Amino acid sequence: MYSTVDIVAPCYNPPADGWEEKTARHYNALQQQLPEVNFTLLIVNDGSVLNVKKEHIERLQNKIKNLKYIEYKINKGKGYAL
For residue 36, how many C-alpha atoms fall within 13 Å in the half-sphere facing its CB? Predict the structure, then answer.
């Protein structure tokens, strides 16, 4: 029997270059450690104007099959993003 877990990662002006590679690496390591769990990663861009580019999201989508990306144009805060 499989379990499902959604991981919500709100971001506003995320870390420096390479953040998407680190995110994919950690997600995939978690999935390998718990293969009986079906993880979905939801990244919520809460109005960030720095360090979130289309190519970053495309790279993540290529490395994480269960990725959902949500984007708000205006920052509404972490609570709203969650």
Answer: 3
